[in-house]
Amino acid sequence: xxxxxxxxxxxxxxxxxxxxxxxxxxxxxxxxxxxxxxxxxxxxxxxxxxxxxxxxxxxxxxxxxxxxxxxxxxxxxxxxxxxxxxxxxxxxxxxxxxxxxxxxxxxxxxxxxxxxxxxxxxxxxxxxxxxxxxxxxxxxxxxxxxxxxxxxxxxxxxxxxxxxxxxxxxxxxxxxxxxxxxxxxxxxxxxxxxxxxxxxxxxxxxxxxxxxxxxxxxxxxxxxxxxxxxxxxxxxxxxxxxxxxxxxxxxxxxxxxxxxxxxxxxxxxxxxxxxxxxxxxxxxxxxxxxxxxxxxxxxxxxxxxxxxxxxxxxxxxxxxxxxxxxxxxxxxxxxxxxxxxxxxxxxxxxxxxxxxxxxxxxxxxxxxxxxxxxxxxxxxxxxxxxxxxxxxxxxxxxxxxxxxxxxxxxxxxxxxxxxxxxxxxxxxxxxxxxxxxxxxxxxxxxxxxxxxxxxxxxxxxxxxxxxxxxxxxxxxxxxxxxxxxxxxxxxxxxxxxxx
Length: 499
Ligand code: FRU
Known about the structure:
Layout: H1 10-28, E1 46-57, E2 60-68, E3 78-84, E4 91-97, E5 111-121, E6 124-133, E7 140-147, E8 154-155, E9 173-181, E10 184-193, E11 196-204, E12 211-218, E13 227-234, E14 240-247, E15 256-263, E16 268-275, E17 284-290, E18 296-301, E19 316-317, E20 324-328, E21 334-338, E22 346-357, E23 373-380, E24 388-395, E25 403-408, E26 413-417, E27 428-432, E28 440-448, E29 451-456, E30 461-466, E31 475-481, E32 485-495
Parallel strand pairs: 1-19
Antiparallel strand pairs: 1-2, 2-3, 3-4, 5-6, 6-7, 7-8, 9-10, 10-11, 11-12, 13-14, 14-15, 15-16, 17-18, 18-20, 20-21, 22-32, 23-28, 23-32, 24-25, 24-31, 25-26, 26-27, 28-29, 29-30
This protein binds beta-D-fructofuranose.
């Protein structure tokens, strides 16, 4: 059925894909590797933004992504493709989608196969994406492509399967995320109208004919004018659901999650709690999948539109965050935890205990330094009289350049300050963090060559930032301000490269 009349235009599409793969092969040898990451997913060369089509399919995790294989700039968007057995080691596959049709190619502005998702439809791997052509009427429409081998994709002859938005005047109609509930496919699409971001719902029994069911949720006026890359999924007990969105035009906020209830009859979402899923600067367009163990795994683009992006001058742009498992706490907050599989990257290990930090100067720990590390730090704050505790990473020899992570005890806030961090944008990220009942503060950090991801508060808080220090800056020092504090335990592992 789905595949039958889908092959008509596939030759042209395949020729464009072969051309894109050829360009990548040439370009990947010419990259400046200064800021290339050791254990994060990156494009082989060229530009990458949003994760697309995340799916656990026939024993592999598949990750597609917005991609320009020809240049490290946003151009006509292709879908890049990689797969992994363990969410840690990634293998690049041929480009999956290239702009080739009048609904995804043309004009002089933004164009291409924009963001979307993947589902398994009776053993067929189906990609649902937005065809975008700036200035075309309509500019955005929802489209389908399918594959039986998980590598070669054919765009459907019935495209676009949703030809136009419900309203003529709207600000964005893109990024379909599709999932199945009982016997029906549900699609949430990012939408904006009259200054309000929305997640609108369609349903279908065959992925081809879609019925519009209205808005699941919309902005109350403070949540952005367009919700990019919505993802709506069940999490935790009962009928609890989470709606993840990337709202436009409420800087500095770039991501939000709403937790609450989704009613599959009325297609309405009732919000009970709202918060950021990550408090860093470089975290956008998160998408999730569910795997064979029933885990809800989230990956996001580890960059942000409008940032300085120093790696662009090096022939590439873009990375994905580490995969994080999402869980729902009883109070409706969503927690995120780096997946345990990441432990397979661990090499040399240093551990220390009972390190007293006094309010003057910085404390280094023997052999604790580097640019490809996992750190697990437990501060005992129960007897601390310091006002702040923290550490500096990626420190230069002379101490003038570093990124600082600090927890302010009275304020109950966690900060990451990269104003002296090197090239790229500065800025201070901040997140609210209540101390745990036993007085411990646990910080878990993943440092890669041009990134840092920080997790705290049993998954309540994550801060993700790109950093572009001089590669020689690998120092790490710990501190307490205006008093003393104790590091109860410190564990540091060198993490190996996956490339
Ligand atoms: C989000 C986004 C999506 C769009 C894609 C284009 O980063 O703007 O809304 O589909 O990127 O590459």
